[in-house]
Amino acid sequence: MYQRIQSQNQKISNRQIIYYCDLLWCLVVRELKILYKRSLLGIAWTLLNPLLQLLVFSVIFQQVLKAGSGINHYVSYAFSGLLIWGWTQSALFQATGLITGNRPLIRQPTFPVPILPIVTVTTGLIHFLLALPALAIIMAVDNVTLTWNILLFPVLLALQFILTLSLAYPLAALNVTFRDTQHTLGVILQLLFYLLPIFYTIHDRNIPQWLQTFYAWNPLVILIESYRAILLDGTFPNWSGLFTLAVIGGLLLPIGYQIFQHQSERFVEEV
Amino acid sequence: MKPAIIVEKLGKRYSRTSTQRPRTFMEAALQGFRNMKPEAEFWALQDVSFSIAPGQMLGVLGHNGAGKSTLLQVVSGIVRPDRGSVQVAGRMGALLDIGAGFHPDLTGRENVLISAVVGGLTSREAKAKFDSIVAFSELEAFIDNPLRTYSTGMQMRLGFAVAIHTVPDVLLVDEFLSVGDLAFQSKCLDRIMQLKNNGCAIVLISHNADQVRTLCDQALWLQQGKTKAYGDPEMIATRYIGNMDLKAQGQALHNYSQEIRIEDVYAIRDDGPARSIDSGASVRFVIRYQAEQIFQNAIFSLNLSDEDGQVVFNTSTGGQKYNIPIWEGIGEIALVIDRLDLSGKQYYISVGVHSPDWSKIYDYQWQRYPFAIHWTPNKDSILNPPRRWEIMAKGDRWIPLTTEAIQLSE
Question: Which chain A residues contact residue B24 at CB under 8 A?
Answer without folding.
Answer: 178-180
